[in-house]
Specification:
There is one protein chain. The chain has two domains: about 130 residues, Fructose-1,6-Bisphosphatase, subunit A, domain 1 (Fructose-1,6-Bisphosphatase, Chain A, domain 1, 2-Layer Sandwich); about 120 residues, D-Maltodextrin-Binding Protein, domain 2 (3-Layer(aba) Sandwich). Helix content is about 35%, strand content about 25%. It has seven helices and 14 strands. It has a seven-stranded mixed β-sheet, with helices on both faces. A five-stranded mixed β-sheet has the order 11-10-12-14-13, with helices on both faces. A hairpin with a 6-residue loop joins β1 and β2. It is globular, with a radius of gyration of 17 Å. The chain starts with a helix and ends in a 6-residue tail after the last helix.
Length: about 260
């Protein structure tokens, strides 16, 4: 199954590289867009994944979704990092996860610009282009941490920036990429040491979450601890050394005990 999923994700990624007729449409919310290529890739994935696992359900960003069930379900983001894609920033990915009993068991996050395939099977470790990878062993004081800005929700944006400021004062440095799927993949392979955002949708994090866990990292929703893959969630992913310090900051942000910006 994993090899077949990688093949499908690569084909979808090749579609990303063809930008012809990628018309842009505004969606509800601040600075929120979808391109024709998102929609085309989504329909390609719907067809190919249904053939890969007949009877499975399909849960994706660019459609109205029913609630998550225990049935085998594909959670898909056809282009994670749409704004980057629109602006030619070459930091976007196809993200696909297969859930059974509401938990990821297979995942593929493909960056076609770098030709990097991050993939994982539950219990089988995390791979980058077929080679095993693990989270870093970098300490919190030396950590490079990526953050998401949650631009669609003003209050969560404020909390996230307060947390980012607190992290920046204690850790090494922070980055903002604009693709949560790649942020999670980069934690999994040790390029960065932690990632957090105050609200992500399941298609943003489902694939990357399995990568992190299979690479030896830790992942949670700081509000609920356990991650609900059927709902928008706060997400923290980190290597074991950075996990608790960043979690403490996120919970202090939630409690209103961080320094105001």
């Amino acid at each position: 199954m994993l090899n077949a999923l990688e093949t499908v994700a690569r084909e979808a990624g090749r579609m990303m590289l063809d930008r012809q007729e990628a018309a842009i449409h505004r969606k509800e919310g601040h600075y929120n867009f979808v391109t024709e290529r998102d929609l085309q890739i989504q329909e390609f994935l719907r067809e190919r994944l249904a053939a890969l696992l007949p009877g499975s359900r399909f849960f994706s960003e660019e459609q109205d979704n029913e609630g998550l069930s225990d049935d085998p379900t594909w959670i898909v983001d056809p282009i994670d990092g749409t704004i980057n894609y629109m602006r030619g920033r070459r930091c976007s990915a196809v993200s696909v996860a297969l859930l059974r009993d509401r938990s990821p068991v297979y995942a593929a996050v493909y960056d076609p610009f770098a030709d990097e395939m991050f993939s994982a099977e539950k219990g089988g470790g995390c791979l980058l282009n077929g080679q095993p990878v693990q989270v870093s062993e970098t300490s919190y004081e030396q950590a490079l941490i990526t953050v998401g800005t949650t631009p669609y929700e003003t209050e969560l944006m404020r909390l996230g920036m307060q947390a980012a400021y607190a992290v920046l004062r204690e850790a090494g440095d922070i980055r903002r990429t604009g693709s949560a799927a790649l942020d999670l993949a980069w934690v999994a392979c040790g390029r960065t040491d932690a990632f957090f955002e105050m609200r992500l949708s399941p298609w943003d994090f489902a694939g990357g979450a399995l990568l992190v866990l299979e690479a030896g990292g830790r992942l949670c929703d700081p509000q609920r601890d356990a991650v609900n893959y059927g709902l928008p969630s706060r997400i923290l992913a980190a290597n074991p050394l950075c996990y608790q310090p960043v979690l403490d900051i996120l919970r202090r942000a939630e409690a209103g005990s961080l320094e105001a910006l």
